[in-house]
Amino acid sequence: MKPEICRNCAAECGGEIACAAYEELSRMYRQLKVEDHTELMKNLRSKLNITDAEVADDLRELGERIIAALPELSIIPELDVQIGYVRSYERKTDKGKTVCADCRKVNKTYGAYLPFDFVITFYEPNMYYMTENQQKILMLHELKHIGIGDRGLRIEYHDVEDFGDILMRFGIDWNWQNRDVPDVLNIK
């Protein structure tokens, strides 16, 4: 079904092609929705003494689907690596760069309390513009940080600004706004 806004559009594209105006309005709406949620959470955080993050079952499901589909991540199920998935409504930067997500190894002290080896966090305000396929690549990127070394599980660092194989498959601009990228789960 063609969106109401397209039915009234002067371009009369018939809804067959992507409408730049409709896409821009959708993007603006998603951004405002995230900004409104972020502002609401900031206000509630101080009033109710709550944190600005939550366990994200949808991210866990996405992570599990990607792990199951990509043999390059086989170390995760083979070693029974436990991963926690979190959605944060706070913005994060590192040395002036916007951080869309990160993967952290749970240290031994916290490991006594948490049933996870790693925690992957998606920073919602920084990634509102990402398409579903871009988010899948972002999840793949974070999962690739999970590795094993001489002393057990560890964080794997980028071999270049990103992981070289991600850049080769999806391009250097895979995470730029309005980029059309392939579905990680449909790549053979």
Helix residue percentage:
40-55%
Walk across the major sheet and give the strand order: 1-2-6-5
Strand runs, count: 8
Task: State the CATH architecture of the largest domain.
Answer: 2-Layer Sandwich
Span between termini: 32 Å
Residue ranges: pLDDT <50 for 5 or more in a row? Answer: none
Number of helix segments?
Answer: 8
Return the average pLDDT rounded to an integer.
Answer: 83
At a glance:
This protein is of the alpha+beta class. It is built from eight helices and eight strands; from the N terminus they run H-H-E-H-H-E-E-E-E-H-E-H-H-E-E-H. The model has no long low-confidence stretch (mean pLDDT 83).
Q: What would you say this structure looks like, in words?
A:
- With 188 residues, the chain is an alpha+beta fold.
- The chain has 2 domains: 1-50, no CATH class; 52-186, 2-Layer Sandwich (Zincin-like).
- Helix content is 41%, strand content 17%.
- It contains 8 helices and 8 strands.
- The strands form 3 sheets. A 4-stranded mixed β-sheet has the order 1-2-6-5. Strands 3-4 form a two-stranded antiparallel sheet.
- A hairpin with a 2-residue loop joins β3 (93-94) and β4.
- α3 (57-69) crosses α7.
- The longest helix has 29 residues, at 20-48.
- The radius of gyration is 19 Å and the shape is globular.
